[in-house]
Structures are given as C-alpha cells and as structure tokens.
Amino acid sequence: MSYTIPYGKQFITQEDIDSVVEALQADYLTQGPRILEFEMNFAQYVGSKYAVAVSNGTAALHLNALALGVESGQKVITTPITFAASANCVRYCGGEVVFGDIDPETYLLDINSVRAILENDPDGNYVGIIPVDFAGRAVNLEMFRALADEFDLWIIEDSCHSPGGYFLDSTGIKQQCGNGNYADLAIFSFHPVKHIASGEGGMITTNNEALYKKLLALRTHGIVKNDGLYTNHPSFAAASKDVETYPAWYMEMQELGYNYRITDFQAALGNSQLKRADEGIQKRRAIANKYYEAFKSEKFIKSQSGVIEGHAYHLYIIEVDDRLGLYNYLREQGVFAQIHYIPCHLMPYYRDLGHQEGDHPKAEAYYKQCISLPMYPTLSAEEQEYVVHKIKEFYV
To answer: Does residue 341 have a cis bond before it (omega within 30 degrees)?
Structure first.
C-alpha cells in the first residue's frame, strides 16, 4: 500500500463545518459575537483572565511587542530554535533581538544562557524575554519569572505549539501554558497544523487588564469607542456647541494600530475545535508514546525520554545521523517529515545584523540532526507503523 503522510494535518468534522456555515449565514462576518465567545472560552480553557483573538500568531506577537512598548535601542532575548516570528516581532518595533542557546535535552531556551547574557550586559538595555514552548513542551516560567523580576524584564510566552500544555511549578501545581500567572502576555496560533485550527488566526492571553485594553485598541487601528476614554470634547465630536454627550457615531483613533482582526467564521471554527482540544492532545500523546517505544532501543536515533508530562506534542522530534539522507528517503516513500527549525540567527536577515555561525553551538548542533515526524490526531496506527518501518529500513 502506498501512503502520502504529511508531518501535520488539520482535522475538520461535520460539527466544524456546520458551525462555519451557521456563522456565514448570520448577521456578522466580522466584529460579531462569535469572536467574544471564542475569547471567553479560550481564556477559560487556559485559565487566564483575558483573551484577545487576532488574525494570526504573528499579529499576536507584534501586538504584544507594541503593547509592551518595545522601541529602538531596547534588547529582547529569545531562542534561535523557533519560527522567525518569535524574533521578528521585536524587529517590527525597532528593537534588537538577542538569541540565547538551547538546552539540548529539552530543546527549549536555556535559562542559564539567558542569565549569562543579562549578567554580561554593560548597558542594561534588556527589557524582555520571549521563551517558546517549542514542539509543545512547556517552558518552566516560574524560573524565568524569577530571573525576569531580578532584571526588571517582561515575559511574552510563545505558546503557539502548546495549547493545553503545562509545567509543574515548585509546589507541584500544574501551570497551564498561557494562564498568565508568570508571563505578562502569551500567544497562540490557529494555523491548520496546530492543535486548534481556524485556517489562520491567533490568540493573546493575559491577566493584566491595562495590557488587555491596549491590545483591544491596537487590534483595530488604535480606535476606541468608549465615552469614558475619549479625549476630544463632546461638542467637537457632535460638531455642535454646548453639547455634553457624545453622539452614537463617534469614535477616536488615539494611537497607531493595525487591522489584526479575526473573522466571525474563523472564530466559529476555532470554538468548535476547542471543544475537542483535550481529546486531540491525548491522541498526540499516544502517538508520541508509540514513537518512543519504537525507537528507544535504536542506537541511531535520539528521542526525548518517554511521554513527558505536560507536553502538548505539536511535534515529535528525533535526532539522527545522515538527516538529509533520511529526509529524502522518507519523501520518496510518501512520508513528508519536516525540519523545525533552521536557527533564526543563521537566516540571512539576522546574519546581516551581525549574527553568525558558532554563536549558539547547541542550537546549531541540534539543527544538524533534527527531523519532525508525522504528528496529528488522525494519523492512523497503520500509517505510524509505516513511518517507523521506513525509518528503521533506512538505517539497516
């Protein structure tokens, strides 16, 4: 039997389709009630006070950097093993990106690397850290929060890979990714290969009311529509003398924002998918366990030990020798594995800013051997067995 097996794939049910059709037939295609419903349900799911739905995960990162006031001359630390948007959001605002190295066992930003950067900073221009819950494994934000407080920094948690993921804090309590207990802001993505798919789309979560209100305005051109927030006098707003109330049509653009809104039908799809989020994670963990059991005794493969508690398994990554050979062989066999990621600091854009090979040896060593195997809830047992067989076959 021949297969075509991607590394990731959306799972759309009839309930998802019905929810989108219902939204398309409703009065609002955008700026309607389904967006607020999605925000409220998502905030409840991760345990945060507030959530702001936006057009995609990159928009979420950009808005976070704007809301936190990133500007030219300021430095922000992130990991080189991530999608470029985690770093680019700082550059959008004119800030400087500084990369730390990774922990080769977790693939996450190494807190010791971050501390070394901060302790060797003569200028004190660092303002924040953007840790990434890479592959679905949650960063220990309790430890990062202590470090951030020591140096007066904010934290943006990039949780695009980890809705439903968590870490255990020092008291053994589960800390859900994006719950706002340690990070100032967190972001999620609803790209089709993610846990929750809405075509495109993103979410910001926070427990900070001031940041929440700022994000709402920045999402829609910096426009506010609230009598208590207007700065112009009612008489100006109404273009009439001696008027003390604002007319119903009035609104104010108070700062430079963007159109980063999500649509109602995307929110409807996201809401429908959210209902199955925990079920999807359980299936991902079962797939991860099968991969682990299949490869744990193979000398030619390095994989993380067992099924890791709190891991949301957006990706299942192994490290191998002759990665290029395996990648090409799998493609010939209909298995479209992927590489996550080319280190950000070695992208031409960041090389042009002064970053170079050798800056982060652990991240670079990881890149030379990493390969992401197919991982999605509808991956069948037969398909997974085929993937495992083809990998072992290559090394015979």
So the answer is: yes
